[in-house]
Amino acid sequence: MRPDTPAENVDHTAEAARLERTAGLYPEDAEALLLQAAAHRELAGDRAGATALYDSLLSSVESLDTPHLVRALKASNLWEYGHEAEARAIIDGIRAAAPRDPAPWVIVAESLESHDELEQAEKTFTEGTRLLLTDVPEPPYATHPLLFGRHRVRRMLGAAHDEWDVLADALHSSPVSLDELHDPKRVWSLGSDNPAELAAEISRLRAELGAYREALSRPFPVAVLHWPTGELTELVAAYPSLGAEYPSHEEHLAVIEGALRELSASGTGNLGIVTGTVPSYEAFAASEGTSPADATLLPQYATTLAARGRAVAWPPQRRTDCWCGSGRAYEGCHGTTEA
């Protein structure tokens, strides 16, 4: 169940408690589960309880996959129940840390925006955009909200379009343009008795709802399964029939990069990579009542890992390590044109 489920259809407090219990049973997924639980706590109005969950995660920050995301969510939540000074301090820290993940940038910028700090929101969106998208030929799916949010705030500020706004317009797929959706002078239906204006506003609202539903329909990436060297060796030794899927580790890595590039070229966005382990795969096979030697189980395992929040976005952000674990920058490893 997603936290965006309407309150009348779910007991958010009970759902948060269920997720917290599940996190205790599956510590490897605790981060993703507790973040969902915190979202339900916020929706239930228990903002102090949500903060306690964020603090419990941050107390073991060395084991977190997304510490900046947790801090950003904590800051946004704190500001909503009167802890503005602490929230601002966290936001300043995130901006100074310059995370390579777009999500923290979007969250703190939207928090500033929601409290009418439009100039600071625009600066934050711009800092994140410049850091993550300078010299990037094709913005990753995860960065689209950064561009769209920046476009929205700049329209409210009355700023002239620049190259990033043009890029946001190009990426926006709705039949109603971003300029129209983000027009601060839009005539809202409750304030007009003109049928033509009402019809135009309904059209815009439908376009916004369609874009929102499209984003929710892809809550986790289309993910390709990656086996580190040792895990793949163990997997094929235990289940020799899978050797047909994985002739060698080098070929396995090349197939991953090739498959992701093909998906990207076909227009598929929100791509990612999940890393498997033999014990986890065997446990998944047991839960499905299937032998781990069944190759048809592999894509299901990848999807399950992605749904559990284990996917890493592809392609990696500029100047970050390659997804293969070589320790080299992606641009000099699988990100080369010869890869």
Explain what you see:
With 339 residues, the protein is mostly helical. It has helices spanning 12-25, 30-43, 47-58, 67-80, 84-97, 102-114, 118-133, 144-157, 163-171, 178-181, 195-216, 229-238, 249-265, 278-288, 297-307; strands at 222-226, 271-275, 312-314. Helix 4 packs parallel to helix 6 (102-114), helix 6 packs parallel to helix 8 (144-157) and helix 8 packs across helix 9 (163-171). The radius of gyration is 22 Å and the shape is globular. The protein starts with 11 loop residues before the first helix and ends in a 25-residue tail after the last strand.
In terms of topology, how is this protein built?
Elements: H1 12-25, H2 30-43, H3 47-58, H4 67-80, H5 84-97, H6 102-114, H7 118-133, H8 144-157, H9 163-171, H10 178-181, H11 195-216, E1 222-226, H12 229-238, H13 249-265, E2 271-275, H14 278-288, H15 297-307, E3 312-314
Parallel strand pairs: 1-2
Antiparallel strand pairs: 2-3
Q: Which short descriptors sum up this protein?
A:
15 helices; 339 residues; globular; three-stranded mixed β-sheet; mainly alpha
Q: State the helicity in percent bands.
A: 55-70%
Roughly what is the average pLDDT, rounded to an integer?
Answer: 86
General shape: globular
Characterize the largest beta sheet: strand count, sense, and whether it forms a barrel.
3 strands, mixed
Report strand order across the widest sheet.
1-2-3
Structural class: mainly alpha
**Secondary-structure element string:** HHHHHHHHHHHEHHEHHE
The end-to-end span amounts to: 39 Å
Q: pLDDT below 50 for ≥5 consecutive residues: which ranges?
A: none
Strand content: under 5%
What's the count of strands?
3
Kindly provide the radius of gyration, computed on alpha-carbon positions and rounded to a whole number of angstroms.
22 Å
Number of helices: 15
